[in-house]
């Protein structure tokens, strides 16, 4: 459906925000992961045809969107990280306004989308009075107005409470059954249970494009757990990469990323996806050293 070929974006002649990214994306949820400044937002803006690559090609159904951006714009839904609403418009009026911009003339479509994001009972409320989670859901509704094949959401759960985050993740997972959903985040737990593929970026480069299961399998045997005293903990954390530490009485439960047993009585632990990614990062740092 979507193919990126050696895509780069250079700002000011020197800064490589995106560097030679190549991948092929199909239906399902793709988690775009990386630290702040890794190039995620710039990459998504190029896919959405909001900015042009400095080099490389982006193909949607075989058509170059740089040369023919209309090929993707009519089939794309986009929710940016900073999604604002018009203070004087209700949620319904907001949707009607965007429907007119997108050439959608079916009022039933608007009602259906408000129900999909669980805002039907708030349709006549001013959108400016919505909570952060409600605004994000309204943003998803407007992004789906044209029934897009590709949905791009940039840091969609930023600032949401746990209940809203769960509701939002479930909605994106459901949409991924029929569409390509590209979800950018630096919160690994947001994509751990819904993404079929993870695209991991660092300093503008795509350093991995794998399934979550493959990442977890690669970390097998690299994560350890132990229950140690405070003095041993102080000594240990100066030598190894501690992923998590929790005090229990006079002792400390630790989880550690290390290729070998890091201390006496350490045992293998099943890593979470976030721990697997951290273990990979630490392994790469050690190899570089």
From TrEMBL:
Pfam families: ABC_tran. Keywords: ATP-binding, Cell membrane, Membrane, Nucleotide-binding, Transport. The keyword Lyase does not apply. GO terms for molecular function: ATP binding. It comes from the Bacteria. Residues 2-228 form the ABC transporter domain. Belongs to the ABC transporter superfamily. This is ABC transporter ATP-binding protein.
């Amino acid at each position: 459906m979507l193919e990126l070929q050696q895509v780069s974006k250079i700002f000011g002649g020197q800064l490589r925000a995106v560097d030679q990214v190549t991948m092929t994306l199909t239906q399902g949820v793709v988690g775009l992961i990386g630290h702040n400044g890794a190039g995620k937002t710039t990459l998504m803006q190029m896919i959405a045809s909001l900015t042009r690559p400095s080099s490389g090609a982006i193909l949607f159904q075989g058509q170059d969107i740089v040369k023919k951006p209309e090929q993707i714009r009519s089939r794309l839904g986009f929710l940016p990280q900073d999604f604002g609403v018009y203070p004087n418009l209700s949620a319904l009026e907001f949707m009607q306004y965007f429907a007119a911009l997108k050439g959608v003339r079916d009022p039933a479509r608007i009602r259906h989308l408000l129900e999909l994001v669980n805002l039907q009972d708030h349709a006549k409320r001013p959108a400016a009075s919505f909570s952060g989670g409600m605004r994000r859901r309204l943003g998803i509704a407007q992004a789906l107005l044209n029934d897009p094949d590709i949905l791009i959401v940039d840091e969609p759960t930023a600032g949401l409470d746990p209940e809203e985050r769960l509701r939002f993740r479930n909605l994106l997972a459901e949409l991924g059954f029929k569409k390509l959903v590209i979800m950018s985040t630096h919160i690994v737990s947001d994509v751990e249970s819904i993404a079929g593929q993870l695209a991991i970026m660092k300093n503008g480069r795509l350093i991995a494009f794998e399934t979550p299961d493959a990442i977890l399998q690669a970390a097998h045997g690299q994560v350890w757990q132990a229950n140690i005293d405070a003095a041993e903990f102080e000594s240990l954390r100066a030598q190894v990469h501690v992923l998590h530490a929790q005090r229990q009485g006079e002792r400390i439960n630790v989880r550690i990323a290390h290729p070998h047993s890091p201390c006496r009585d350490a045992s293998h632990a099943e890593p979470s996806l976030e721990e697997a990614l951290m273990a990979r990062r630490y392994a790469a740092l050690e190899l570089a050293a």
